[in-house]
Design goal:
Blueprint (H helix, E strand, L loop, with lengths): L5 H25 L22 E5 L1 H5 L6 H5 L5 E3 L15 E3 L10 E5 L2 E2 L18 E8 L13 E7 L2 H4 L2 E8 L4 E7 L2 E2 L2 E12 L19 E13 L4 E15 L6 E16 L3 E18 L6 E7 L2 E11 L6 E21 L6 E24 L2 E22 L5 E6 L3 E16 L3 E12 L3 H5 L2 E3 L2 E4 L7 E15 L2 E13 L2 E7 L2 E6 L2 E15 L2 E15 L18 E9 L6 E9 L2 E2 L7 E2 L2 E13 L2 E8 L7 E5 L2 E4 L4 E8 L2
Parallel strand pairs: 4-7, 25-29
Antiparallel strand pairs: 1-6, 2-3, 4-5, 6-7, 8-9, 8-40, 9-11, 10-11, 11-12, 12-13, 13-14, 14-15, 15-16, 15-17, 16-18, 17-18, 18-19, 19-20, 20-21, 20-22, 22-23, 23-26, 24-25, 26-27, 27-30, 28-29, 30-31, 31-32, 32-33, 33-36, 34-35, 36-37, 37-40, 38-39
């Protein structure tokens, strides 16, 4: 319990919330008061929410992808990008960084991902545990591109992805699905969601496992090459109960575990976590949103030599803890005005334990430990004012951050220290601002403009943990400074009818002191602050509906370049690593009946560079996916899915000709319960 404090919440806090739900409902009925039905959502959007470039994915869009993965669903949003093209079945978890607007460059997330208001980023690495986020548990995803002030704004450098869990009404009492693909891999999920008086509880689980596909091209395989086998599960328990007619209590616990093997036999990677949160939402005259959470995470990784095919590094333990919370208050200020006041806090701590191994003898040559503590306390204020057809918004945020207790220790096999570095503590204040306006010109046209600044602290991983993607070694850098964002945008939303919704946004964003992996020698890189990453571009989306047919499409064009001087002068003017110029996605859906659906998705990702020096190219890739749901009887349906039906070769890594590839053509079939 001391090591994983989230377990205490899972074992005690959540069941207490469950017990409270029926008791409160019985009291309400005894007093002959109307039964209050809660949904488990947060506070409503403010009038100025449309001032920023926002896209919303509904439950159908989240659950009808060919892969069944959350990253595949989010890829339908213009500007969404993972650090690498690999999905969460075949990528190293520490590379699962999420960003928006081509502001990539390393594996840490520059976009904030929230699940029911709680940050999901790993406290040590900053990656998002994508395999633990099951789309079928969700009601919606709202993606706001661009940074700025607001709750948990210190991590929202490139924008925010807000995931909302589905309630019992959306899930039904019992639901689930089970599928198998043409490689014999399986995907199974189930949920039990009873209404408990005026509240509800949801117990859900998912299990994915399989031998995986070959990530190594046939011409480069050796006897040590293996498929990308994976085995992951997650269980979530969520309960929502009304305390009064305007206040509800929400509790959530999540436990997950993921193991996978990448490229060579013995190159095994794992991640695990136990998260818990409590949330109070008040919807009276004085609205408020109070959240507290705790996260216990761990990561392991074995690096295998691509020449000797034996382990060279065993990152055997990386326990990390995240603790934090948020309080937002909206006092009554009149119908034309919404004032938001609040604070948020996050503490991230963790320690790496790894062993360097001799390729000749297999003996441990060095034992290393590294870690530290980062904290951020943010104070924010934001105000929306509606003046006729125009809504103005402005906000300010002040962050007090600390980077402390950093260290790196290396010992020889006898236990004697050969390196013992303790890094000076740092702290300071950073200010961020955002403002915008939206004008509703009639019922069909809306124009908007916004400007903003933002902040991201370097992660513990970037500060203290070196890593190897053999044969390339990337060194950590304890002197990294905070990243800062300056940006502005303007857009237009046009809805000529209830069946047509069009959106176009032009933006200019600049990340100053951007953290990038800078090449400093042959097969050697170091994390450094470069002058900037400058991204300018256009994002467009269209939602069309014609009877039983509908179309959802997005397009992003981004002109991104790095600005470097000094040691990073060689990359000045280059496109950032892993950053495409073009991305596009289009889904054509046909719904012949209420419970039947056929959807085809065509997706294109332009060419991009593996490295900052633009020496290794990842060619453009275009894929075609298919999803079909055919009712059989009652609440049971047949589900058919097809990934990459054209068999496109998707190169996900290219280091001097050493190549990894993404998911090949894959066919799935199964049964779904609860339509």
């Amino acid at each position: 319990m001391r090591r994983y404090p989230a377990l205490l919440y899972l074992c005690c806090g959540v069941p207490l919330a469950l017990l409270a739900t029926p008791a409160l409902a019985q009291q309400a009925q005894a007093d002959d008061k109307p039964v209050i039905v809660v949904t488990g959502n947060g506070l409503p959007d403010t009038p100025a929410t449309p001032a920023y470039d926002t896209a919303v994915l509904g439950r159908e869009a989240l659950t009808s992808t060919a892969s069944g993965r959350i990253e595949d669903a989010l890829a339908a949003v213009a500007g969404f990008q993972q650090f690498r093209r690999s999905d969460s079945r075949s990528s190293n978890p520490s590379a699962q960084g999420v960003t928006l607007r081509a502001l990539g460059g390393n594996a840490s997330s520059r976009a904030q991902v929230l699940l029911d208001g709680v940050p999901m980023a790993d406290p040590f690495f900053g990656y998002i545990p994508l395999s633990a986020i099951a789309p079928e548990r969700l009601a919606s995803a709202r993606v706001t591109r661009g940074g700025g002030s607001g709750p948990f704004g210190a991590g929202a450098l490139a924008g925010t992805i807000e995931l909302t869990s589905a309630d019992a009404a959306a899930l039904g009492l019992v639901s689930g699905q089970a599928l198998v693909n043409d490689r014999g891999e399986t995907e199974a999920s189930a949920s039990f969601a009873p209404q408990l008086g005026a509240g509800f509880a949801v117990l859900s689980g998912r299990w994915d496992r399989g031998q995986g596909f070959w990530t190594t091209p046939l011409a480069q395989r050796v006897p040590a090459s293996v498929r990308a086998a994976y085995d992951s599960w997650s269980v979530q328990l969520r309960a929502v109960a009304p305390l009064t007619d305007t206040i509800d209590l929400q509790a959530r616990g999540l436990a997950f575990h993921d193991t996978r093997t990448l490229r060579f036999a013995g190159a095994d990677t794992s991640m695990e976590g136990q998260d818990a949160s409590l949330r109070l939402v008040g919807r009276g005259k004085w609205q408020f949103d109070l959240i507290g959470y705790v996260q216990a995470r761990n990561f392991t990784n074995v690096v295998v030599s691509s020449t000797a095919f034996v382990p060279t590094l065993d990152q055997r333990n990386t326990p990390a803890t995240g603790v934090g919370g948020k309080l937002e208050v909206r006092p009554p200020t009149g119908e034309a005005n919404v004032l938001r006041l609040g604070l948020d806090y996050r503490k991230s701590s963790g320690e790496l334990s790894e062993d360097a191994i001799s390729t000749a003898t297999g003996a441990v040559t060095q034992r290393r430990n590294a870690g530290g503590v980062n904290t951020d306390l943010g104070l924010f204020v934001e105000d929306d004012l509606t003046l006729g057809v125009v809504t103005l918004t402005g906000g300010a945020r002040a962050d007090r951050y600390t980077i402390s207790d950093g260290f790196f220790v290396a010992r020889n096999p006898a236990g004697l220290a050969v390196t013992d570095r303790r890094f000076a503590d740092r702290s300071g204040w950073e200010a961020s601002f955002r403002g915008g306006a939206v004008a509703r010109l009639g019922r069909r046209l809306r124009v908007r403009a916004a400007a903003y600044t933002g902040l991201r602290l370097p992660t513990l991983n970037e500060l203290y943990r070196p890593f190897t993607v053999f044969p390339v070694v990337t060194q950590a850098n304890a002197e990294l400074r905070n990243e800062r964002l300056d940006g502005y945008e303007a857009g237009i939303d046009f809805t000529p009818s209830s069946t047509v919704d069009l959106s176009l946004t032009a933006f200019d964003n600049r990340v100053k002191q951007a953290i990038a992996n800078v090449t400093i020698g042959p097969n050697l890189r170091e994390r450094q602050n470069i002058d900037a990453i400058h991204a300018r571009g256009i994002e467009a989306s269209a939602q069309l509906k014609f009877g039983k047919l509908s179309f959802a499409g997005s397009l992003a064009w981004t002109d991104a370049e790095t600005r470097g001087s000094g040691a990073a002068a060689a990359l000045d003017g280059n496109r950032p690593a892993q950053t495409p110029r073009w991305t596009a996605s289009g889904t054509l859906s046909w719904r012949p009946a209420a419970d039947a659906l056929v959807a085809a998705t065509l997706r294109h990702v332009g060419d991009q560079f593996e490295d900052d020096l633009e020496t290794d190219v990842l060619p453009a890739a275009t894929t075609l996916d298919l999803y079909a749901q055919v009712p059989l009887s009652g609440r049971v349906a047949l589900v058919l899915r097809g990934e990459n039906l054209t068999g496109e070769t998707i190169i996900t890594r290219n280091q001097a000709g050493s190549i990894d590839i993404g998911a090949p053509r894959t066919l799935w079939a199964g049964i779904k319960l609860g339509l």
